[in-house]
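Retro notes (design track)

What went well: tokenization of the new backbones is finally stable.
What didn't: we kept losing track of which sequence belonged to which structure.
Fix going forward: every design gets posted as structure first, then sequence, in one message. First example under the new rule, 73 residues:
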């Protein structure tokens, strides 16, 4: 399974996309998520921008640096 993880601005991590999903959690806004397998082996579910969500596929690498949004790496 995975653990839900709210990404903080000061966190850094990198991993490989395992699954991409989206949903209207509040009924009016579309949210985009990916499940990422981190180097430690943990799988976390993080919210990402629509632009990044449209540009990635399962198996792509994502990098999150402190103070920045996740990017394809």
């Amino acid at each position: 399974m995975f653990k839900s993880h709210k990404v903080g601005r000061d966190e850094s991590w990198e991993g490989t996309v395992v699954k991409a999903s989206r949903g209207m959690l509040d009924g009016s806004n579309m949210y985009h998520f990916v499940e990422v397998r981190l180097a430690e082996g943990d799988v976390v579910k993080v919210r990402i921008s629509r632009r990044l969500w449209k540009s990635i596929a399962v198996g792509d690498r994502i990098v999150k640096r402190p103070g920045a949004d996740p990017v394809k790496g």
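Added context from the reviewer: The longest strand covers residues 13-23.
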